[in-house]
Write a structure and sequence with these properties.
mainly alpha
């Protein structure tokens, strides 16, 4: 039995419909029409297309004198390649006792690392960071309130846009969590671990944005925007330093962990941190919008005008396709045997994301 396909991985991937022993160690390719669920190629198109759109926008802003978008796009990838391998293969890093087997992705059109890493997941990191940053930047929050408040608002925006995806994936077999992993995957809200909701969906993105803005947004020695080696090194530092911020945010709940974790206490702690994020993020956005001193928002880019709305509409369509099975589920499991996420929480996130888009359309000047 291979080290990358132990008993837990074997059980989880079997439920997804494939055998983790029968995978390519480097890269695998499939026809989109052969995937396990009809939403999967559409999801790939939505996310990979968004990543390309975000990169084009970032390059345009870099040429216009602002390297922040481009630095954030690449810092997201650096963060991905720092954080994901230990989560996929903890035994390679001596972390199997600390993390255990956490989850597995289903098989998509393009897959890497023994079918653990789909191409669309690589694209998702820059997509969600660019979506949230560009939305908050366009509202003028970074300009008027600074890097810290802007980054908290980004963490909040990531929460509402990410969780409409996070609470749907397990039901549609986009991925599957290892329910037997009580180290990382519990406590959970429905099928989604609270650690994922807080640390991955918000803390990491907010912290990475703050690092990128502070490290790459300041002028170079000649007074111009940062370019070349300086920009590359600072982008690299921002991506590498992002994972430790997640560990710091996870310290409060870790006091109730150990060999016999108190998941109830952990749920209260993580829930309180998540509630604080909602309160702080919503307060920053609302107070900024209501302030007569906030001034006009930044000119609205084509990416900010179109992609967040397209993303949200796409996720809403996926949810509508999954709604009959969700409503007929018993004890949190559909007739197909897949776990459901929290519909009420996803609905609140949809509302929050919709309000952010409404504020953007109302406040921002014409497209540039």
């Amino acid at each position: 039995m291979s080290a990358v396909c132990g008993p837990e991985a074997e059980a989880v991937t079997r439920d997804l419909g494939f055998d983790c022993h029968d995978v390519s160690p480097v890269v695998s390719l499939r026809f989109p029409w052969d995937l396990g669920h009809p939403t999967m190629p559409l999801l790939e198109l939505l996310i990979i297309g968004g990543a390309v759109f975000a990169l084009v926008h970032a390059v345009r802003r870099h040429r216009g004198g602002d390297p922040t978008n481009l630095a954030l796009w690449f810092a997201s990838l650096i963060y991905l390649f720092v954080i994901e391998p230990p989560l996929y293969f903890p035994e390679w890093f001596g972390l199997e006792q600390r993390y255990g087997f956490i989850f597995a992705h289903n098989q998509f059109t393009v897959q890497f690392m023994a079918d653990r890493l789909p191409l669309y997941i690589i694209a998702f990191y820059p997509v969600i960071s660019q979506l949230a940053y560009e939305l908050v930047r366009s509202l003028g929050i970074f300009r008027s309130r600074g890097a810290l408040s802007g980054s908290v608002a980004v963490a909040f925006a990531c929460q509402v846009f990410y969780e409409v995806f996070d609470h749907l994936g397990p039901q549609l077999k986009w991925w599957a969590w290892n329910g037997d992993n009580h180290i990382v995957n519990h406590p959970a809200l429905a099928s989604v671990p609270l650690n994922s909701m807080l640390l991955f969906a918000s803390v990491s993105m907010g912290a990475m944005t703050y690092l990128v803005v502070r490290l790459t947004g300041s002028p170079a020695a000649d007074g111009g925007p940062r370019r070349g080696r300086s920009l590359v090194l600072r982008t690299l530092v921002a991506g590498v330093l992002t994972p430790p911020t997640m560990a710091i945010a996870g310290i409060p709940s870790s006091f109730f962990g150990g060999d016999d974790p108190n998941t109830t206490a952990q749920a209260w702690v993580l829930g309180a941190e998540l509630a604080l994020l909602w309160v702080a993020g919503a307060w920053i956005v609302v107070s900024h919008l209501r302030s007569p001193e906030s001034g006009r928002a930044e000119p609205l880019s084509a990416f900010a005008r179109f992609y967040p709305a397209v993303y949200l509409v796409g996720m809403a369509a996926f949810w509508l396709s999954a709604l009959p099975a969700y409503l007929s589920a018993e004890n949190g499991v559909t007739d197909d045997g897949t776990p459901i996420g929290s519909g009420p929480y996803a609905l609140v996130c949809f509302v929050g994301a919709g309000l952010l888009l409404g504020a953007l359309r109302r406040k921002a000047p014409a497209t540039v």
